[in-house]
Design a protein that fits this description.
With 133 residues, the protein is mainly alpha-helical. Helices cover 68% and strands 11% of the residues.
Length: 133
């Protein structure tokens, strides 16, 4: 009789541990998804502000429809109608990313992509689309 109760207690303990683990896994997953969504929104707002700032600097009053597009989870495309100096654009991007507390490796990737893109833009004299991945 005693063995039966011990086995029953062990079974309930195992079910409880599995339940608690599943519950924690569910909420950790939800928290990660929420944090990723907030990060993507902050990047989108930061890039939109940079595009707006570029338009103000170039005195461009045209409205761009969806100037920032998220191609994938870590790839953004920001469109402008104008070109400007690479260091100025890098400065605007860095400042805006720091204002949004996005001081992650994204800043490094932005800088690399920006330098490559702006080098091509100055060599080929075409209007760049800022790509962040």
């Amino acid at each position: 009789m005693k063995r039966k109760y011990i086995r029953l207690v062990i079974l309930f303990a195992a079910i409880t541990v599995i339940g608690v683990f599943s519950f924690q896994l569910f909420w950790v997953s939800k928290a990660y998804n929420l944090q990723e969504k907030q990060f993507n929104e902050r990047v989108h707002v930061a890039l939109s502000n940079v595009v707006r700032e570029v338009q103000l600097l170039n005195q461009d009053s045209s409205e761009l429809y969806e100037p920032v597009k998220q191609i994938s989870s870590n790839y953004y495309l920001a469109s402008t109608n104008d070109t400007l100096h690479p260091y100025l654009l890098e400065n605007l991007l860095t400042k805006e990313l720091q204002n949004r507390n996005l001081n992650t490796s994204l800043s490094m990737y932005c800088t690399i992509a920006l330098q490559t893109l702006l080098y091509l833009a100055t060599m080929l004299t075409w209007k760049p689309k800022l790509e962040i991945w």
